[in-house]
Amino acid sequence: MEHTEALRVGIVGAGGIAAPHIEGWLALGAEVSILRRTGTDALAANYGITIIDDLDELIERAEIVDIISPTSTHPEIAHRAFAMGRHVVCEKPLAVTAAAAAEIAQEAADAGLRLFPAHVVRYFEGYQRLHEQLPAVGALLELTFRRTVAAPASAWFYAQDAGGGLIRDLMIHDFDQALWLAGPVIEVAATQDPPAVDGQVQPPVSAHVTLTHANGAISHVQADWFGNDTDLRSQAEIVGTTGSLRFDTANSAGQREGYLPPASAIDPYQAQLADFVDALRSGRPARVTPEDGVAAVRLVDAAYESLAAGRPVLL
User: Fold this and answer.
1) Where does the GFO/IDH/MocA-like oxidoreductase domain start and stop, copy by copy (predicted)?
2) 17 touches 173 (CB < 8 A)
3) Which of 28, 71, 104, 263 is the Cys-Cys partner for 254 at CB 3.0 to 4.6 Å?
4) Is the peptide bond before 204 cis (omega within 30 degrees of 0)?
5) What CA–CA distance (Å, rounded) separates 283 from 130?
6) Measured between alpha carbons, how far is 115 from 103 in angstroms, rounded to an integer?
7) Tens digits of per-residue pLDDT, 44-94?
8) CA angle, corner 150, sides to 231 and 167, nearest 5?
9) Both 160 and 309 in a single domain?
10) Number of CB atoms found within 10 A of residue 109's CB
11) In total, how many domains does the chain have?
12) Is 285 a domain residue?
């Protein structure tokens, strides 16, 4: 059946990721509302979207609720959306812990509603090509990922024990890539320099996590929060028995500021949302499933357990 009515989307959150989400939804012809927060007046003026003062009213008016607020708030907002019969798009990570993420996924399934974890890197052209060309390298041996960005402005990102943290917020992108490319992980070993102090991350900071996959491949994952003038740079290399593949955003034209991907013919945020909408309307799985979202948070949990214990963690 052809859908002719505009999709109604309610956004919760007004941080740095709001603009790409709003632009993506508007490009798909959606009617967009946003819950009033600091910063929403400027977004409304810029994009012509509607500000709603009450969360339940926002959910009531929407067909899809797009959660882009701080991670610790995701479960409660998703719960209220599912209780009111709404589908949910939720920025990574789904929740602070894998247990909470699994509860969100189960609640969606029980309600017969769709949950779309927003792991946008699967929609970057360079990473899509890596996935498509993967058979050319033969059996996987070693994968290396690095992601470097300017440290975030908002304080909650630095509360490692309360939903923030370098590994949970930034490195999770490449945890998802490692899972997408090399499959399940059986061991996680993590280091972070400098370590968090009283649960607070102090940039500049780097973390390195080694993932051992069930198929024997090893993924080395590094993430960095550096100074305010740092542009996003993400790199990936895949080595197999018959070849290798590489991707580096430093070689991409149209570089943008901060953590946003390089400009390209296919905007990854719009591509991600278009995939979610098509999956919703057709009933097919999206490129990122609820199980994928939970699996990425499970690696985050294991990485922080490894940091605390000072040893690898078996899954």
Assistant:
1) 138-246
2) no
3) 263
4) yes
5) 27
6) 12
7) 999 999 999 999 999 999 999 999 999 999 999 999 999 999 999 999 999
8) 120
9) yes
10) 13
11) 2
12) no
Tell me the pTM.
0.95
Of the three residues 75, 92, 120, the one that is the final residue of a domain is 120
Cα–Cα distances in Å, from 226 out to 198, 202, 204, 205?
20, 10, 5, 7
295, 217: one domain: yes
Residue for token digits 């959606």?
30
> Are 98 and 301 spatial neighbours (Cβ–Cβ below 8 Å)?
yes
Exposure class string for 114-137: b at 16+ Cβ within 10 A, else e? bbbbbbbbbbbbbbbebeeebeeb
Asked if the structure places residue 42 within a domain, the reply is: yes
Euclidean distance between CA atoms 164 and 149, whole angstroms:
15
Residue 281 resides in a domain: no
94, 194: one domain:
no
Question: Across-strand partners of 163?
Answer: none
Instruction: Answer for the pair 312, 218: CB distance below 8 angstroms, yes or no.
Output: no
**Last residue of some domain: 60, 85, 120?**
120
Both 58 and 41 in a single domain? yes
Reported as type and span, the H/E element at residue 282 is helix 268-282
What is the enclosing helix (H) or strand (E) of 219? strand 218-226
pLDDT tens digits along 224-274: 999 999 999 999 999 999 999 999 999 875 544 445 555 556 799 999 999
- Provide the CATH number for the domain around residue 215: 3.30.360.10
